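Chain X:
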Amino acid sequence: MKPVARSAERNNKGPARVVFDQVTKRYGSSTVAAVDRVSLDFPAGKLVTLLGPSGCGKTTTLRMIAGLEMASSGRILIGGDDVTKLPATARDVSMVFQSYALFPHMTVMENVSYGLKMSGFAKDAIVPKANDVLKQLGLDALAARYPNELSGGQQQRVAVARAIVLEPRVLLFDEPLSNLDAKLRRYVRQEIRDLQQALGLTVVYVTHDQEEALAVSDTIVVMNNAVIAQTGTPRELHDLPQTRFVADFIGEANVLPCEVVSAGGDGKPAQVRLGGLTLQTNACDGTTGQRHVAVRPNRVSLQPAGSPHTLEATVQKATYVGERMEYIVQTALGELFVTAAETDKPIAAGTSVALGFGVGDVVLLRD
């Protein structure tokens, strides 16, 4: 994918870092904050995803970057400049909306050119510039069509083209794939990721879809109840969740009670007692006692009953889902959800089995 050429002024600026410094947003006289004292650092040239359930504050955070909502307190910096009180038109930011917001009475070319015209670009430069972006996104053959003559994926690309033609320092996406079917979502999310890397843009991306966030992001910010639950790379959040909320929200997890018998630290793992097993896990905050651990369904090994250093279990339900088997098993600690790649010889319901846990498979949670 060939990047669109930037003007000398934009090349000097480059992609912008976005910083939130103790930002709070309240609506009207409400005492409940939509975003509560959030501090974030969105690195320049990276794709950061705001992920969380409906009402967690992620879209409000995005709209405050865009200048469509104003912060009640705190500061927002873009490229080192304090833009907290600046209107959307003064922020050098473009946004791709969930609904695409294309003008139905305009062709693809007219939609993509519109922002250039409103921004005062020279008339003789508008069409060549729009054409460059349309070619980059594979839309040049559709330039004369209207939005109602396009597929959902094509409309999505037109919305992206209209945003990037302005060469923004920050590009924002608000649930960009929610109107697409599952197969097309996989294709378009990769297009967005490729585009971001080709242009070197700072992208802030909002979604409630965990798989989508894991697929496109350099960094994921998980939000819950107007605050940040955890920030990290996709692998960090999936493999080392810090709380029950994050463990359950990012993928699937079995959350089980345990006893921390050795807190670890100084590079040493903690030791936890899980049923009759003593297992090594990540170091904790130095305290022992009753806690919880998270175990991903694919990190539990199903072994013959009576195997050493395992947890006894009975298969309650076995379900074939194509690429794997899904099992519900009953243990002394309660029900667990376990997946297995072996589909040719499924384990029948009622079978006694043993559950094994390898080093790193059990993650100690903060709460």
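Chain Y:
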Amino acid sequence: LFDHYLVDRKINAITEITPAVVDAFLASRPRSRPRSYNHLLSVVRRLFKWLVRQQRVAQTPVQSQARHATAGQMMFLFDRVQAQQLLKLAAELPDNNRARNRGRIYSLTFALMYGLGLRVGEVARLCRQDVDLERDLLVIRETKFLKSRLVPFGPKLGARLREYLQQQTESAGALAPTAPLFSFGPNPSQAIHPGTISQTFHVLWPRLGLKVPTGAMPPRVHCLRHSFAVGTLLRWYRSGINPQQRLWDLSTFMGHVHPASTAVYLTITAELLESANQRFN
């Protein structure tokens, strides 16, 4: 982003990058949340610290200060029973003139998000060739920050995927390797849109009768990914695994380059505190 900004302004030398240029770049990338703004500022600041160490510039032009971040609302976390209820409701969705197999598609997309911690865009972009039933894994291609990864799945999700593909083959023929895994038709080459998945989630969750805890935001589809992260941590605690030794595994699984990015998802719940306290004792 910074490089494109400099090219557009015809700034061709590092020495031309002044504090005013850096401030103008930051202002050109509006960030509503302090954390997002501070992250962008931090990336640019680290770049120039490196340039100073490499003696490419005498001093850093980054003089902007981080924004004060107030405590945000907690993410709503689905437990196993609530997630099962969501999948059941999704499976009961009827078809309409613009969408066929709505129940099967939405139930499986939510299951992949909750069971594997996938982003909604990652689920929507899956193609048939991304489902490896021989090795029981998904290939997530060029997702956020153009990273790709392999995501193994267990027997329950494997059975759901096999059943879905079998039903797809029986009703409309086998999918081509590059065909979207989830498509409503009549154009089978058009993948389901992430926004459509999100809208359907917002239609369904009020029907679950969930009680939103004080201080938590109403559920949104990204909560399923958060729920996966916290649920994994809780299972590790309860099975005697030291989470500190496994955070790199969780980060890799979720497509993060460092556990610090994963920590954003690890909302501290009463169950986590109880399990951590038992481990400490």
